[in-house]
Amino acid sequence: MSVLPMTVAAGEVTAAERKALRDRLSRSTRPLCGLLLPLGAALLWEWAVHAGLSDGRLVPPPSVVYATFAELAGTGELQRHTAATTMRVAAGFGIGLAAGTLLGAITGYSVLTRRLIDPTLQALRAIPSLAWVPLFVLWFGIFESSKIALIAVGVFFPVYLGVMGAILSVDRKLVEVGRVFRLSDAAMVRRILLPAVLPAYVIALRSGLGLGWMFVVAAELLGASEGLGFLLIDGQQLGKPAQIVAAIVAFALVGKLTDWIVAAAMAPLLRWQDAFTPVGDR
Amino acid sequence: MLVLDRVGKTYPGGLRALEAVSLAAAPGEIIAVIGGSGCGKSTLLRAIAGLDRATQGTVTLDGTPVTGPHPGIGIVFQEPRLLPWLRVADNVGFGLFDRPGPLRESQVTAALERVGLADKAAVWPRQLSGGQAQRVAIARALVAEPQVLLLDEPFSALDAFTRVDLQEHLLALWAERKPLLVHVTHDVEEAVVLADRVVVMRPRPGRVAEDIPVALPRPRDRRAPAFEAVKRRVLTALDRSLDRVGPSAAVKPRVAAVGLAWG
Known about the structure:
The complex is a heterodimer. Chain A is an all-alpha fold. Chain A has one domain: Orthogonal Bundle (MetI-like fold), CATH 1.10.3720.10.
């Protein structure tokens, strides 16, 4: 009499265990799915060039790109150019971030300031940023300053809009809690508004950083003696597509790395968030 | 002593939300304010809390006019309104920023113990149930030891069991220091369970229709005939306040609201 339930129970356990194992396997292999397409294409191209189906002159196969990358890294060339580009992004990002945060916070908090300066800033935002380049070159010269100014402009707008929008959308009900406890203006900003806008601020920060990397390429393409953008132009003028791809890969790596640093640095501050977790990502 | 002297509120658009509401409440009293939707219950509470200014009349606490948020007046809203970026303990201690750290800590711990959530001190608000979150909100308001605690339909979003639970809990908390409670509700039973006086309000513009004393000993038995009798009296007053004659079997707020829309 007791045998039947027991076997059923045992069967259930193994079924559950099997399912758990399958889940764990699929969770660890899932990220690899995304690699199938690019890796497959790379291998296919490598094989095609090896088999003589293409000379791979204009589209270098992965092995050649890797060799170029390693060679540039070996001579220290790659590091020098990456450092130059990163410095420009850091400087432009710093300036754009500071200005965007400050003006966004002021226009978000004060209706009068918003009425005074927001229309002008919105009008300026409508100008394609690259249109500033000739003016910046006249104003700041052809060296670092004009490049940094262009990057700062690119970073400024997403940060400004993000901060202002976030402050304007802070829950009135939470602000009222601050009023009930008679917080001063400064305490209201520090204890209610700033924490409340933090999640939106991190997003603004990351999109600003993304635009910073975009604009550094533009700035360097327009004339630079070093930087990853210079490697791109150099590769084009000397007919070295492998160098161009190597520089692109370097861009992707540093861009992703800096984005990850920002996200990781902010993550501990956002642990309170009751955010949506995509299904299958828990 | 909390005194409301002919308090009125007219919104800029000309809508008269409150008209000449006069009320005097002694320390330690529990007053329930009840009425159909649109009768200005919440407006009245916000005027007492100093969150909105009354356009006519005055609110005074022990002779001092209340013109803004007042240290002696705490409020619990319909939603818990916990700050999601602070852990439960820091939420409870939010209003105690001017007190030295160790004192604040011991007060917070004591407050959490009183609402039975000592084990949740280090938890984020999102991890609490609705009832727990509202208990934290009550602890946050009470930890500052206010003379007056205002409650704006604090249990209306909770299920019936949790609501009854929290009503008992609120009474126990009140019994410790006996602040004046002004409890806005649309639940007749809740009003009669809690209050020494039930103030029935009448809409358009919001004003006091009736002030019904509840002379029942505590703890109150919700099924006792005397309890039923008071409940019926409040229901009748509510009916009258909505210009409907005859006692209806059950005036639910929804029904009251529909009646308002027709009337």
